[in-house]
Amino acid sequence: MKRPSAAFHSIGKEVAALQLISRIIGRVRIIGAVGLVAIVALASTCVGVAIVAKAAGIPSNAQGIGGFVNGARALVDPALVMVAAVAPLALIAGGLVLLFGGRRGMQIIGTSLGVLLVLGSVTALIN
């Protein structure tokens, strides 16, 4: 009886690895679809909007532009604080990426500063 060659054995391993990857991708797709359905169902019931409005402290009797401005102010201020806290870490991370020869370091630095400037200008426009 003849033994299979080493090339045949490595091809079998590659096929098994590809089948495993295919199964993992299929499961990720199913999980993603279930998550998307859950998000759409939550959005269609408008429960999410009420939760955000309550957490932001928007009064229920606010209507028109006043309600929009109150909601924007209530949501932008915490976001600005969060971005201002994370921006120095992003600057350090971008500098380290540049230091070790990465191409995306300037992109990380620019994005962190850009988001901080955009949120600051939105806050200035609202106030």
Q: Report helical residue fraction.
A: over 70%
The total strand number stands at 0
**Distance linking N and C termini:** 85 Å
| Rg over C-alpha atoms, rounded to the nearest angstrom | 25 Å
Count of DSSP helices?
Answer: 4
Q: Which structural class matches the secondary elements? A: mainly alpha
- In round numbers, the mean pLDDT is 78
Major beta sheet, specifics? none
Order of helices and strands: HHHH
Mass-distribution shape: flat
* % residues in beta strands: under 5%
Walk me through this protein's architecture.
By secondary structure, the chain is an all-alpha fold. It has 2 domains: 45 residues; 66 residues. It contains 4 helices and no strands. It is flat, with a radius of gyration of 25 Å. The mean pLDDT is 78.
Core attributes:
127 residues, mainly alpha, 0% strand
Provide a compact summary of the structure.
The protein is mainly alpha-helical and 127 residues long.
Secondary-structure map:
Elements: H1 6-44, H2 47-56, H3 64-99, H4 105-126
Helix pairs in contact: 3-4
